[in-house]
Design a protein that fits this description.
This protein is an alpha+beta fold and 222 residues long. It contains three helices and seven strands; from the N terminus they run H-E-E-E-E-E-E-E-H-H. The strands form two sheets. A five-stranded antiparallel sheet has the order 6-5-4-1-7, with no helix packed on it. The two termini are 35 Å apart.
Amino acid sequence: MKKLILLLIAALSVTSTLSAETMYVDDTLLVPLRSGEGTGFRIVHKGLPSGTALEIIEKSTETGYSFVRTTNGKEGYLPTRYLSAEPIARFKLAEAQKTLESLRGQNKELTTKLGALQNSYDELESNYSNTSNSLSSNSKELARIKAVSADAINLDTRNRELRNSNEELRNELELVKVEKMRLKEKSESNMMMIGGALVLLGVILTLIVPLLKPSKKGDSWA
């Protein structure tokens, strides 16, 4: 019989340990931790500040007290009404501000990169325009030489020079076109990233702001 009782006690102890949960001291400033379930018991900790994470070992609906353990291993009893399943608003706000600052930093970095890409794009656009103008000018010069030159040898030499020049300009123009297209696609991609970051920032703010409003304290344990 005694062995059976001991086995039952051990089983209950294991079940209690496995079902332990974590809760937090609510917005009450300081909550003393006592050696028993009641104000007449010795205080084992002078006061747990708001936001302290506690491991709930056991709850009593009859006394309204919970047996808890701190992160440094201190154990004791405190009124269950002082516990909250969620961290206090001050900690949520700090976490939200940290996330917001991170998103702002990413947005600033993307904006800087976008500005640099835009400058490179504008420079390539200018080079493309200048190359196009040079090609057009050479083509006109070639046509003029063909029309007015009577010296076939000089004309052929000049024609070859202009053809070579035009070929080089065409190659350069093609390279400028390819680089221009690459930078344009990269610029559009960064714009989409910035837009996504701003949308994410808006979603985070939409989810966090309602949580920062003061909530009604739940009913106390009986």
